[in-house]
Write a structure and sequence with these properties.
alpha/beta; Urease, subunit C, domain 1; TIM Barrel; 2 domains; eight-stranded mixed β-sheet; four-stranded parallel β-sheet; 16 helices; about 35% helix; about 20% strand; hydrolase activity, acting on carbon-nitrogen (but not peptide) bonds
Length: about 500
């Protein structure tokens, strides 16, 4: 069961409140800062934001030197153990188990984790999202260690976990009709099994119809074809048609590497966005992580119209600066995409799922690309809130305004590392991190209060996650080119010297 709502009206106060002001001309409006502001919540809705609420309230909560803000919208939210960190210092990816070798494929890929493991991963990841102030999440997980795609059973477990923890989610098992396969040293080719992929699509559609709107609306459906190079035309056209019929978002990882881009051009005779346009794939809620390898960027010598296609069809670029930056990549750039009129929303896509850190890394990368005046703190804060809500066509999310959903976070500005404040948003992007989120409300319920998520044993969950992670690492040689021993796949920063285990109180 989701956390219980408080009865009656609750008035919240803090040094700063990030409210929302409507556009008189009918646009979406924008965030405003209320110094020593108030937020009043009743049931699942915000009823007042500003100063001097005159109505009756059942209780008052003053959070002092803190910021009350809308919860973050994460369109590419990590929902497993982050296997991408295994590639942080272990490259190239094809040599370190990140691409299936042909002999593993022929032998028959298998599930490397049990159903219980997969359900635990979702709950473990969802708790981490809440700790970092993410109130709306579209989960993403790796298919590298899966037999093929994600299953209905694990996503039924995910729906139950989201309801129990009080996290707003859009759920849909990932599916595909193909995969990248190593046929020689560093030689990657596509491989397809369309019949199997279409069966996975049918299962995903059945799940979407059953889950959409459950848990009092906390759980919604999405469709999640995995990556563009692993999809056939029939899979994508059926996906797009179903999404339009059901009115749900579709997320497709696209334009995220030169390998993917070149593979699509070779297979389809056009760029990834051009191919999607030719299929009629784009819809009202098309989400495209990561768009880091595209044509048509102003000032970048890569001629084409990829970005224009994405923009003109109203699709959203899901920007994940931390995971991209870890691998030496970024969009080129946030400022140029924004100036073109693209909707840029945010995803975390890695551990830690710290949206504040992602905004900080993003603004640093943008300024490295285009200079120190290229973008401002509020541009990234909009991307993590308003733009994500717009991508989902949810004007009741990503902002604190009367009538909107009571999805909010409280960020503690009394932490010693915060230092002196300019304004809360600039302060957040200079000195904050996800661990500064002290309280999280979703749908009018406290999903986390004073850093505690009810029913979650952090220490026990961390031990279980580490044990699962180590079992997964031990299986890597099975699906790594040449099947080297595990110690040759994963290096250590320095030599490891083992010794006796010493426990106890010093």
């Amino acid at each position: 069961m989701a956390p219980a709502r408080l009865s009656g009206r609750t008035l919240l106060t803090a040094r700063w409140v990030v409210g929302h002001r409507a556009d008189p001309a009918g646009g979406r409006g924008g965030h405003v800062l209320f110094a020593d502001g108030e937020v009043v919540v009743e049931d699942d809705r915000v009823v007042f934001v500003g100063h001097g609420f005159s109505g009756e309230v059942a209780r008052r909560l003053d959070f002092g030197n803190a910021m009350i803000a809308p919860g973050f919208v994460d369109l590419d939210a990590l929902s497993d153990l982050d296997t991408t960190i295994l590639g942080f210092d272990n490259q190239p990816a094809w040599k370190k188990g990140r691409v299936w070798p042909e002999d593993y494929l022929k032998a028959g890929p298998f599930e490397m984790l049990s159903e219980d493991d997969l359900v635990f991963q979702k709950r473990y990841a969802f708790a981490s999202l809440l700790r970092n102030g993410i109130t709306t999440a579209l989960p993403i997980a790796s298919l590298f260690y899966r037999a093929w795609g994600e299953t209905r059973a694990e996503f039924e477990g995910a729906a139950a976990a989201a309801e129990d923890l009080g996290l707003r989610v859009y759920l849909g098992p990932a599916y595909r009709t193909g995969n990248q396969v190593l046929v020689g040293e560093g030689q990657i080719e596509p491989w397809f099994d369309e019949a199997r992929g279409l069966e996975s699509l049918a299962e995903a559609l059945a799940f979407a119809r059953d889950v959409d709107g459950t848990a009092g609306g906390l759980v919604r459906a999405m469709l999640a074809p995995d990556r563009i190079e692993t999809c056939t035309p029939d899979l994508l056209t059926r996906t797009a048609a179903a999404a339009r019929e059901m009115g749900i978002p579709v997320r497709l990882h696209c334009c995220q590497s030169k390998i993917e881009y070149d593979m699509v051009v070779k297979l389809r005779g056009m760029s990834p966005p051009e191919w999607l346009e030719s299929l009629g794939f784009f819809g009202a809620m098309t989400l495209l992580p990561h768009a880091t390898w595209v044509s048509g960027v102003p000032g970048i010598d890569r001629p084409g119209r990829d970005l224009e296609i994405i923009r003109d069809h109203g699709a959203t670029v899901v920007h994940c600066p931390l995971v991209s930056g870890r691998h030496g990549n970024t969009i080129r750039s946030f400022t140029r995409y924004r100036e073109m009129g693209l909707n840029i929303a945010m995803g975390t896509d890695t551990a830690p799922p710290d949206m504040i850190m992602n905004m900080q890394v993003g603004i640093i990368l943008a300024r490295v690309m285009d200079g120190s005046t290229a973008c401002r703190s509020e541009h990234y804060f909009d991307a993590a809130t308003l733009n994500g809500a717009d991508a989902l066509r949810r004007p009741d999310l990503g902002r604190l305004a009367p009538g909107g959903k009571a999805d909010l976070i409280v960020v503690d500005f009394d932490r010693p590392h915060i230092g002196q404040q300019i304004d809360p948003i600039q302060t957040l992007l200079l000195a904050g991190h996800g661990r500064d989120v002290r309280h999280v409300m979703v749908d009018g319920r406290w999903s986390m209060f004073d850093g505690v998520i009810p029913g979650v044993d952090e220490a026990a969950d961390k031990r279980r996650a580490q044990a699962q992670f180590e079992r997964l690492m031990a299986l890597y040689p099975v699906r790594t080119w040449g099947h080297p021993p595990v110690e040759d796949i994963f290096s250590s920063a320095y030599p490891v010297v083992s010794g006796p285990v010493v426990r106890g109180t010093p």
